Amino acid sequence: MPGNHAFLSPSSSVRWYFCPPSARLCEQFPDQGSVYASEGTEAHSLCEVLLKSALGMPCVDPRPSLQYYSPEMEEAAEGYVQYILEKVERYKAESPGAEPSVFVEQGLDLREYIPQSMGTADCVIIAGDTAEIIDFKYGMHPVPATSMQLRIYALGACEVFSHLYDFTRVRMAVYQPRLHSVDETEMTVADLYAWAVNELSPRARQAFDGVGEFACGDWCRCCRARRNCRALADYQLEIAKYEFASPATLSDEEIADVLSRVDALASWAEDVKEYALAEALKGHSYPGFKVVESRTKRLFTDDEAVAARVKKAGKEPYETKLLGVKAMEDLLGKKAFAELLSDLVTRPEGKPTLVPDSDKRPELITADKEFA
């Protein structure tokens, strides 16, 4: 079950791997957590218990104490358990008579390659020549099976089990129920160890020592130091060089540069505003700015009293409308929703939008491209 994270945790590995000094820089800023992180932790707890129950392992039902429990979380956890049980049956069919070994919330010792680091794999299955590491992700941000975190978990599984089992390859899978996504990949144990020795371990040592070069990328999104990082500020403000240029005069490469930064720039600017407001409320002053009370909308002080008076005046104070698709699905649960309403649901065509090539959606063929 997810708990306290190591200084160089697998979950933040993509950041400290590509930007080693960020690890020590983040120590200066508290981890404030988020609703999404708390929800994900609870979803993992539910997955753990349902999987252990299905495998006949002792467990304690966490549902009474879960703050974010919902039918959606229950279905997500049930789907995860079914996914793993199907894998176990598949391994049994591939090797009749050989029972796969399944480990739930398996502790991993990563200190051989990452200083003072530990981790926990959601599920490890060992069958024949294969060790498979499965990671449950409850969030809405796509995570590929090739993620740094999952590869480190695979390394940890090799460290724990290679002296007990004779496997030569590792499979890695990410199960993301809210994105209806399962991504899988594999590599040889030899290649995994070569990567760990030649690439991971040197980067981890740099991160632990607080040395190396700052580097900006998608990993900045979850960096605790992002609001105060000079490297990120310089990187984001590079876009200012296009400020007075007409879009029509920019080269394709320059437009691509702007497109690759604009969303992150907007997010970073909001982060800076939030940080500045928090500091101003503590008494800090910024030249040319002051703290004021925001504009607000009028509110009723007593909804029931308002409704009573309006009805007495002969008017209807309430409006009634059908729940939206997502709200209705939450009300009924996904299975009941599909049974009752699947033939009454449609998805209109989305508006064209530019996204990176890494986006999994198929490319929209425009009229000009089709004609060409």
CATH topology of the largest domain: Lambda Exonuclease, Chain A
| Mean pLDDT value | 89
Q: What is the molecular shape?
A: globular
Determine Rg (CA atoms, Å).
Answer: 25 Å
Which runs of at least 5 residues are low in confidence (pLDDT < 50)? none
Number of helices: 12
Specify the CATH architecture of the largest domain: Alpha-Beta Complex
Distance between the termini: 54 Å
The portion of residues forming beta strands comes to: 5-15%
Helix content: 40-55%
Adjacency order of strands in the biggest sheet: 1-2-3-4-5
Tell me about the largest β-sheet: 5 strands, mixed
Can you write the helix and strand succession as a string? HHHHEEEHEEHHHHHHH
Q: What is the CATH C level class of the largest domain, in words?
A: Alpha Beta
What would the keywords be for this entry?
Lambda Exonuclease, Chain A, 2 domains, single chain, globular, 11% strand, alpha+beta, 372 residues
Q: Please, could you describe this protein's structure?
A:
The mean pLDDT is 89. The termini are far apart. The longest helix is centred in the last third of the chain and has 30 residues, at 252-281. Helices cover 43% and strands 11% of the residues. The chain has 12 helices and 5 strands. It has helices at 13-18, 22-26, 35-54, 71-94, 148-161, 189-209, 230-237, 252-281, 303-312, 325-332, 334-341, 367-371, and strands spanning 101-109, 118-127, 130-136, 169-176, 181-188. By secondary structure, it is an alpha+beta fold. It has a 5-stranded mixed β-sheet with strand order 1-2-3-4-5. The chain has 2 domains: 10-209, Alpha-Beta Complex (Lambda Exonuclease, Chain A); 218-281, no CATH class. The chain is globular.
